[in-house]
Amino acid sequence: AVSAAGREVKPQTYTSDGTRITILANINLLSDLKQARDVKCEGIGLYRTEFPFIIRSDFPSEQEQYITYKRLIDGVGDKPVIFRTLDVGGDKVLSYYHDAKEMNPAIGLRSIRFSLQNIEVFEDQIKAILRAGSNGDIGIMFPMISSLEEFETARAIVEECKEQLKKRGEEHISNPKIGLMLELPSLVEIIDDVVKESDFISIGTNDFIQFMVGVDRTNEKVSDFYIPHHPAVMRSLKRIVETADKHGKPVSMCGSMAGDKAFLPFLLGIGMRTLSISPSYIPEAQSVIEKIDISRAQKLADDICRTPRIAEIAKLLKIDHTPDS
Ligand code: PEP
Ligand code: MG
């Protein structure tokens, strides 16, 4: 396959020393699927299911969602698809629901909190996913999980939806993998327990960095303070990946750091082996990964995780962006 950038894309990705790296695609709408297929992704690591909701003028029914999800799964074939449940609120507003403005929408009634307060909307979505996935390789993941209880509550609703479908005699997947997005720093201190509970985790660095450094990811006035290479971010990522590995649980990254060429040596160095990337960045990421040597990447990652200063980490990563102060 030849990408839009004219680069030959291989169906599988290996580092220079032969370490296998899995590249999945992030998609927002069914229409993104063609590009994901063109760049030969190995599956969908993040389907942002709120986008089909955002472009409408009312909540889609279970059946309407089922049709969309089934078309996606059929289009992907036998490759895996991870459905991220509705992540509305914050900067992703539903015109037909959100009227009262929140003072701090990014930490307001959004994401899994919205779903757990709007159980019918949540259940319709879960049932649609379970039905569409009846013969597929699918995972369900909940965004913005902040505690074990929240994860367990959301997972119990999947069980409840399975019961409802059983009663209706509707075909559905009986054992989807159920995971969570690691986007809140609150999970880092309890990461052992989180990883034990969850079938898989996916790190959403866009939100994770926002909350770790306390900077609104959408506010240009403070964009200089949004520092992905902050030592607290770097060390947390290492800890998360090591803990997942220790428990033999799949860990991936689906935030935009996963497709950022400056961070790929670090990510591979801390043991990250699965990346979910926006399709347009996949060809370049693949060619960068092919030049990475894992033992050198490990040394770089160790050096970075020993460094307490932002500017020194920037130097190690060979990136320009350093804060003014
Ligand atoms: C993230 O927060 O990194 C993420 C992948 O989710 P979104 O960008 O949709 O918030
Ligand atoms: Mg997010």
Automatic annotation (TrEMBL):
It comes from the Bacteria. It is found in: Cytoplasm. Belongs to the PEP-utilizing enzyme family. This is phosphoenolpyruvate--protein phosphotransferase. It comes from Limihaloglobus sulfuriphilus. The chain holds residues 428 to 752 of 754 of the full protein.
